[in-house]
């Protein structure tokens, strides 16, 4: 195994049942592809304990990130069997701060947090204000503990970057950013990082963003089990090399260069302990 070519998946949901039920195999396949560490994000307080337990089981691979996502499950499915979701509420935030405080010494970031103004979920101006309030509280909590933040911003890229700027947020990673390249560049000007999923294979807007942003502001992610390279398949951290390959094509550089720089970025922006991966 070439120690100089390791990769880091900076955004994966390993507590999801699709991955958790065979977690040893998932991690073994990642290691076989030179994916040496993964930031495991959470979406609600029920996932906090499982994420920390994963860290305890796999301390050389998993770095847990705890946070409340702007979109939450209703616990019911529609007629097609698809899970119905809604905008986050203040009730969802109950207990989140105290739980993050309790695990602050072992987590790698506060996340997945952010804004999601998708009309099918975020239906009112009040929904938007609640999302902004909960994001603000979690950013301030991260600042209190000098922790990075792992940020969601679907259909709210400009608003998310503006709020983060107002809060003087530091060590910001915007995952799966779907906004304009010009908006992403505003984030770069603030010192933010952007992680790229396999969507870069087929989305011209993401390709344009990757082309516009400097390589030293990019990282690799899968957002697994979502965004699989093959429709309907279950994504895994082992597929993070796909993002790497397409970034290399767009930037016209060698994959090894992309691996090196994105992994260095992950260590800097996410404060990954050196015990998780060896680069020399």
Automatic annotation (TrEMBL):
GO molecular function terms attached to this record: hydrolase activity, acting on ester bonds; metal ion binding
Pfam families tied to this protein: TatD_DNase (PF01026)
Natural source organism: Candidula unifasciata
Protein name: Uncharacterized protein
Cleaved signal peptide residues: none
Binding site for a divalent metal cation 1: 11, 13, 112, 223
Protein function: Exhibits 3'-exonuclease activities and apurinic/apyrimidinic (AP) endonuclease (in vitro). Show preferential AP endonuclease activity on double-stranded DNA substrates and 3'- exonuclease activity on single-stranded DNA.
InterPro entries found in the cross-reference section: Metal_Hydrolase (IPR032466), TatD-like (IPR001130)
Keyword annotations of the record: Hydrolase, Metal-binding
Family indicated by similarity: Belongs to the metallo-dependent hydrolases superfamily. TatD-type hydrolase family.
Residues in coiled coil: none
Binding site for a divalent metal cation 2: 152, 175
């Amino acid at each position: 195994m070439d120690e100089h070519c390791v990769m880091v998946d900076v955004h994966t949901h390993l507590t999801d049942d699709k991955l958790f039920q065979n977690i040893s195999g998932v991690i073994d396949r990642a290691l076989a592809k030179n994916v040496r560490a993964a930031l495991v994000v959470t979406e609600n307080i029920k996932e906090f304990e499982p994420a920390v337990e994963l860290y305890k089981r796999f301390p050389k691979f998993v770095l847990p990130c705890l946070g409340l996502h702007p979109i939450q499950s209703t616990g019911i499915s529609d007629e097609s069997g698809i899970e119905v979701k809604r905008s986050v509420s203040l009730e969802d935030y109950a207990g989140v701060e105290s739980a993050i405080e309790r695990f602050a010494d072992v987590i790698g970031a506060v996340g997945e947090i952010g804004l999601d103004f998708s009309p099918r979920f975020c239906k009112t101006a009040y929904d938007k204000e609640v999302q902004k309030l909960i994001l603000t509280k979690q950013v301030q909590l991260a600042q209190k503990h000098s922790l990075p933040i792992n940020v969601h911003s679907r259909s709210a890229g400009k608003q998310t970057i503006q709020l983060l700027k107002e809060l003087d947020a530091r060590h910001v990673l915007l995952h799966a950013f779907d906004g304009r390249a010009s908006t992403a560049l505003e984030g770069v000007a603030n010192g933010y990082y952007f992680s790229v999923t396999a969507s870069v294979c087929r989305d011209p807007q993401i390709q344009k963003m990757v082309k516009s942003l400097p390589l030293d502001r990019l990282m690799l992610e899968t957002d697994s089990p979502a965004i699989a390279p093959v429709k309907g398949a279950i994504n895994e951290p082992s597929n993070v090399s796909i993002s790497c390959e397409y970034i290399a094509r767009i930037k016209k550089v060698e994959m090894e260069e992309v691996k090196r720089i994105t992994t260095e970025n992950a260590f800097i922006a996410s404060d990954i302990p050196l015990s998780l991966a060896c680069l020399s």
